[in-house]
Design goal:
This is Macro domain-containing protein. Pfam families: Macro (PF01661). The structure is a single chain. The chain is an alpha/beta fold. It contains 5 helices and 6 strands.
């Protein structure tokens, strides 16, 4: 499996699935969640409403899949990351579950490529360095069956630098 790093907007990434750092309502919000719902259009929201009607809200660490609507990806995998509460409320395991459940869902749906944002590192205040370590180690340890490429998409320069250093051991990684 190839791992790529991009500094940019996940809503512009062409791949089989992009991951949405969703809230438990699945109905859109701020940050990457709001951007995906706005740019993806009403088809994503409609499928999220159907999922809610079937199962209720999406719990922390869980993942569900929808169409990507108007986005260049084929699917959106919505996962609910943990809110950082000082590290004493199982936040690390819950974040790991976000990545694992997203990868499992991608494989179940025939995806060969998947793009992840920094889950929980915005308004949920998960420390960016720790989140990057969990994301990278979880992806590297995943027993891949068909996923050929994982893309980490960092919207801000700080996150890009953190992933760059962890993936390469230096600060000179370019995509």
């Amino acid at each position: 499996m190839k791992i790529e790093l991009i500094h940019g907007d996940i809503t512009t990434v062409e791949c089989d699935a992009i991951v949405n750092a969703a809230n438990s309502s699945l109905l859109g919000g701020g940050g990457v969640d709001g951007a995906i719902h706005r740019k993806g259009g009403s088809d994503i929201l409609e499928e999220c409403r159907m999922i809610r009607a079937r199962q209720g809200k999406c719990h922390t660490g869980e993942a569900v899949i929808t169409t990507a609507g108007n986005l260049p990806a084929k699917h959106v995998i919505h996962t609910v990351g943990p809110v950082w509460n000082g590290g004493n409320k199982n936040e690390e395991d819950n974040l790991k579950s976000c990545y694992l459940n997203s990868l499992v869902l991608a494989e179940k749906n025939g995806c060969k490529s998947i793009a992840f944002p920094g889950i929980s590192t915005g308004i949920y205040k998960f420390p960016k360095e720790l989140a990057a370590d969990i994301a990278i180690s979880t992806v590297r340890a995943f027993p891949v069956k068909q996923i050929e490429k994982v893309i980490f998409v960092c919207f801000d320069p700080e996150s890009f630098g953190i992933y760059q250093k962890r993936l390469t051991g230096n600060d000179e990684y370019e995509r």
